[in-house]
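Why should sequence recovery work at all? Because a backbone constrains its sequence more than one might expect. Tight turns favour small or flexible residues, buried strands favour hydrophobic ones, and helices have their own preferences. The token representation captures these environments compactly. In the example below, the structure is given first.
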């Protein structure tokens, strides 16, 4: 069975995600990570569109990539322009990449209504552009933009555009569902209908506007495509692109189809979180294969079954993709999750032991007072370790103070001072922030980074507050959940108190303690 070629377009299509703006440094870091796990092609961007992408291709030439080939992206020549004089094609050649990917029109609607030229001129644009690049000794991938919509509207002409690309020398023809509106059965049937009419290898580029980008990619591969394009974590314009994490996971675990090296599959989750970090774009907890909750189990029935046989509620061993099994703990789950957590920290704890009963009682008391450990796995681990005397705090609080101020010009800000003790040393720090929690976070990190530099790697990704007893009004207890993330994963901590600052402080310090504890295990 042939290997499926993986073509990543996170740096180009992924950068079109609303709210994402990669710096040059970001793009180079992502390139290195994708190369490390064996991605075959990395689309670096469009050198003719902006100075940043042009600078990227200059800088990436200095890197010694282990396995990946960088591709430059652009379009066919403009209508009624010679390919040799087209500035876009000239910039593609100047990028000095071995591979160049260009897109052209296959949907007659786009030709007549958007670029406003004739169907015959469009064929010349495709042919001339590919021939020009082939004369420059480039490997050319041709993206047939809007192919599936074009085929459904005018199958004869859409196929003619592919034949033009093939005859001009395209090394691979990629069928694009650019609007993301095609169903998997349509994709499969169309690929099957055309593949015997072409000799060039076929690829698939699917968008996720119907939520079936991955399904469309798999359907195309089943029908004969040997090249698949997508982005890590499904980044992309509108609803995003097909998620390569999921596609690679399915190829290796379900279809037994080779893509990236086998040894790299276990690095899939790490790469996913790394790119999430660089993107500053939270990875969905329920993301297939790599999500924080992908192998999480809650409730006695599921947990009991999992202990007897993991196949009962898991479709693969999570370690295959670098993830891990989690037993979500709550007062409903009984003593078994506590026993399993203890086992994870090398503590043998019998389900019927006094320690297990004590932990369950403490857990029930804490949940009765408002704690919710099922959504705060990191705080639960710290709770178990503290109770079993298997944990030494990395710092202790000597005191903190916060103030908030609104000035006459309407500017609102907060200041915080923190004094902590680390290894017998009393240290003080102060900082400001948009609110008291951010000010506390900044002040605490400021003093702790001197002792624990790796705190630079983590940041808070979510902050939730819930009032637990609305009848108590402003005196009610609140529960604060803080989600944190570094370049290898995410974790959640909880704090409960009548004072929102104290509840936030508890969740905040737990998040930092957990990061330090996590790093200590490495």
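From this structural description, the recovered sequence reads:
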């Amino acid at each position: 069975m042939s290997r499926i070629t993986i073509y990543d377009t996170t740096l180009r299509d992924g950068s079109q995600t609303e709210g994402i703006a990669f710096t040059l440094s970001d793009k180079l870091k992502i390139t290195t990570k994708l190369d490390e796990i064996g991605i075959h092609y990395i689309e670096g961007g469009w050198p003719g569109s902006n100075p940043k992408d042009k600078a990227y291709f200059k800088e990436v030439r200095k890197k010694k990539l282990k396995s990946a080939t960088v591709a430059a992206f652009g379009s066919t020549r403009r209508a009624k322009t010679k390919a040799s004089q087209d500035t876009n094609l000239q910039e593609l050649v100047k990028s000095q990449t071995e591979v160049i990917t260009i897109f052209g029109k296959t949907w007659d609607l786009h030709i007549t209504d958007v670029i406003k030229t004739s169907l015959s001129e469009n064929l010349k644009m495709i042919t001339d552009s590919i021939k020009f690049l082939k004369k420059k000794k480039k490997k050319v991938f041709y993206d047939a933009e809007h192919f599936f919509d074009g085929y459904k509207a005018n199958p004869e002409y859409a196929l003619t555009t592919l034949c033009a690309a093939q005859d001009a020398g395209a090394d691979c023809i990629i069928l694009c569902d650019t609007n993301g509106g095609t169903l998997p059965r349509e994709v499969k049937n169309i690929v099957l209908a055309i593949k015997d009419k072409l000799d060039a290898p076929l690829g698939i580029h699917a968008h996720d506007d119907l939520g079936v980008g991955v399904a469309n990619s798999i359907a195309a591969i089943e029908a004969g495509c040997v090249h698949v394009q997508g982005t890590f974590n499904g980044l992309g314009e509108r609803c995003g692109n097909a998620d390569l994490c999921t596609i690679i996971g399915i190829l290796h675990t379900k279809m037994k189809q080779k893509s990236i090296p086998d040894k790299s599959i276990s690095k899939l989750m790490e790469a996913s979180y790394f790119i999430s970090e660089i993107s500053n774009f939270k990875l969905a907890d329920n993301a297939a294969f790599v999500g924080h909750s992908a192998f999480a189990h809650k409730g006695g029935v599921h947990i009991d079954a999992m202990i007897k046989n993991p196949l009962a509620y898991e479709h693969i061993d999570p370690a295959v993709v670098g993830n891990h099994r989690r037993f979500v703990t709550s007062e409903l789950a009984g003593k078994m999750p506590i026993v399993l957590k203890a086992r994870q920290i090398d503590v043998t704890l019998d389900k019927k032991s006094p320690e297990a009963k004590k932990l369950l009682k403490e857990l029930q008391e804490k949940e009765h007072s408002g704690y919710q450990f099922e959504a705060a796995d990191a705080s639960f681990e710290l709770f178990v370790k503290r109770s079993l005397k298997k944990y030494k705090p990395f710092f202790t609080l000597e005191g903190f103070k916060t103030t908030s101020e609104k000035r006459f010009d309407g500017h609102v800000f907060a200041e915080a001072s923190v004094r902590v003790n680390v290894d017998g040393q009393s240290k003080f720090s102060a900082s400001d922030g948009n609110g008291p929690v951010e000010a506390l976070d900044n002040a605490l990190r400021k003093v702790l980074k001197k002792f624990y530099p790796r705190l630079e790697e983590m940041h808070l990704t979510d902050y939730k507050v819930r009032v637990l007893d609305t009848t108590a009004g402003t005196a009610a207890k609140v529960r604060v959940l803080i989600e944190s993330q570094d370049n290898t994963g995410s974790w959640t901590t909880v704090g409960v108190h009548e004072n929102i600052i104290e509840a936030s402080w508890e969740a905040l310090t737990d998040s930092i303690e957990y990061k330090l504890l996590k790093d200590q295990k490495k």
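A few observations help interpret the result. The chain has three domains: 5-279, 296-387, 401-441.
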